[in-house]
Inverse folding.
């Protein structure tokens, strides 16, 4: 928990400060210093166009984190209200929403995200939209299940019997119950989203070169697999550590809240 | 079930139909004989693009049910035939991944459940968190670097025969085995605390006998439905892993189709993989039901 929290915080700080502390412009080409090994001047070496790998990693952190965060919030923005409507609303709304969720969840996640991305063509925006649109149904079902359990608790029924307004009931009685498992799942899913987004970027479906992004950097480095190992190590380790941070945070929150198996 | 299938078909149809870009123009642009307005109009009519959406959906659905998934924008070949050619590769990959992930997760789950909250269990938990944190494509590149380029044990990319599947299956199986291992551990631990296990001990059975007969067998039940769900993860992962290793399977076909914006091909592969996923889920449920009802199993 503490390790995960600190690591996540550190990555966020690095991502925010990235463009500021990067030693060089991540886009400036320097063909005289192509594929240089890491040394005192270029701490992580240079890529095939002479761009400083360290600067690209630091500037790419923001892109990777932001796109994962955007995809998660996008999914939450649709999924949580949908879950509440299905859990608290009338039977028809519940039935319709549940059917839609069933159909969306019948697709393998990455395949649906890929297909939705394909609709608008490869760009970071459509990638985030596609991933978010593929993910919301999972949240809707998750929230619906928790709301259904929460609203059957005696004190919630008592609140209902006392004639509290729907909004107050949700905010003071139901939300506190579902928040801990929700936070755990958000943290775990942020890590998963980072993997998905960087994988799709690696395949060339997301953000396009020359922008510094970890998936793209790996895509460009695969041609230099044997000759320039550092090109592949730096972004790979950066992705893994960031995802690990979110996963550790999620695991820690799970223990802390005493949540069992979610996500 | 039929509602789900209906939903899948509507979503697939709508996603691909509402994509910007006129199919007739895309096909014409693919052929180099100069696209005139009349030719495009003629092609639109031939493709039935002038009909309203519901009619187009019904025509499309009829064709799909008859096994006609349309023709690729890119090559003009029938989509269904191409998918059938690629299918065995992906199924082989899925099979090897299953073998690897099932054995690793079984070992991990058993060891960590037996040493609950002790060092081996903590190591296992750390390992599972680590394993799901490493992205498939990077792991694939690393394995390729070490085993194909440095040690030269395996072909770098493509290659033929079953050897070509070993590294991709390892790559794909790592995160799957971690997820499986955790579920298996939780399942074993839950059963270990049941009364009937204590009863089995008190009958004088040995530890091993109790563990194999009364704990492992029921603990495997949740794994069956888990495997049904994981096939979806596996098919999605196949897109990435097959691209990394240049395996000519369904995943690579999908990835290439998306890069080329080859809509009928995307539609076909998405539909095929989703159907496989649905069938796997249904089969898992069926096996689960059969085992539960079979009185000698538990």
């Amino acid at each position: 928990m503490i390790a995960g929290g600190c690591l996540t915080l550190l990555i966020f700080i690095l991502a925010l400060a990235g463009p500021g502390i990067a030693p060089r412009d991540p886009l400036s080409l320097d063909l005289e210093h192509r594929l240089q090994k890491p040394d005192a001047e270029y701490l992580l070496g240079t890529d095939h166009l002479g761009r400083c790998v360290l600067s690209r990693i630091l500037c790419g952190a923001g892109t990777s984190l932001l796109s994962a965060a955007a995809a998660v919030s996008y999914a939450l923005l649709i999924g949580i209200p949908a879950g509440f409507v299905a859990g608290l609303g009338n039977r028809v709304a519940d039935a319709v929403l549940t059917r839609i969720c069933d159909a969306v969840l019948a697709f393998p996640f990455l395949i649906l995200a890929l297909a939705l991305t394909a609709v608008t063509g490869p760009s970071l925006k459509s990638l985030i939209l596609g991933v978010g649109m593929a993910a919301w149904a999972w949240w809707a079902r998750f929230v619906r299940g928790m709301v259904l359990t929460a609203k059957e608790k005696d004190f919630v029924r008592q609140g209902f019997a006392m004639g509290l307004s729907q909004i107050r009931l949700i905010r003071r009685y139901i939300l506190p119950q579902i928040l801990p498992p929700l936070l755990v799942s958000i943290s775990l899913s942020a890590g998963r989203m980072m993997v998905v987004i960087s994988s799709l970027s690696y395949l060339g479906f997301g953000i396009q070169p020359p922008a510094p992004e970890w998936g793209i950097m790996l895509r460009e480095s695969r041609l230099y697999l044997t000759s320039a190992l550092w090109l592949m190590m730096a972004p790979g380790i950066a992705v893994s550590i960031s995802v690990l941070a979110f996963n550790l945070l999620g695991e820690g929150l799970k223990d802390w809240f005493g949540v069992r198996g979610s996500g | 079930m039929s509602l789900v299938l209906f939903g899948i078909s509507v979503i697939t149809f709508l996603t691909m139909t509402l994509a910007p870009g006129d199919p007739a123009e895309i096909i014409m642009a693919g052929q180099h004989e100069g696209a005139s307005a009349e030719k495009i109009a003629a092609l639109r009519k031939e493709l039935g693009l002038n009909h309203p959406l519901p009619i187009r959906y019904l025509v499309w659905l009829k064709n799909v049910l008859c096994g006609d998934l349309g023709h690729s924008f890119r090559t003009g070949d029938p989509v269904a035939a191409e998918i059938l050619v690629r299918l065995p590769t992906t199924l082989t990959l899925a099979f090897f991944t299953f073998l690897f992930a099932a054995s690793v997760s079984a070992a991990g789950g058993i060891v960590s459940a037996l040493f609950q909250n002790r060092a081996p269990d903590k190591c296992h938990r750390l390992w599972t968190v680590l394993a799901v944190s490493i992205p498939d494509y990077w792991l694939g590149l690393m394995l390729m670097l070490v085993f194909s380029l440095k040690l030269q044990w395996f072909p770098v990319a493509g290659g033929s025969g079953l050897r070509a599947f070993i590294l991709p299956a390892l790559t794909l199986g790592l995160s799957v085995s971690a997820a499986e291992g955790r579920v298996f551990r939780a399942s074993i631990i839950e059963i270990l605390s049941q009364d009937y296990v204590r009863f089995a001990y008190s009958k004088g059975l040995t530890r091993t006998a109790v563990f194999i007969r009364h704990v492992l067998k029921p603990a495997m039940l949740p794994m069956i439905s888990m495997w049904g769900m994981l096939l979806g993860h596996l098919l999605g992962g196949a897109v990435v892993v097959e691209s990394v290793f240049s395996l000519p399977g369904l995943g690579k076909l999908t990835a290439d189709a998306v890069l080329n914006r080859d809509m009928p091909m995307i539609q076909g592969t998405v539909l095929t993989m989703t159907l496989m996923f649905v069938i796997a889920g249904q089969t898992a449920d069926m096996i689960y039901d059969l085992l539960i009802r079979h009185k000698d199993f538990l």
Q: What stands out?
A: Chain B has 13 helices and no strands. Residues 79-114 of chain B form the longest helix (36 residues).
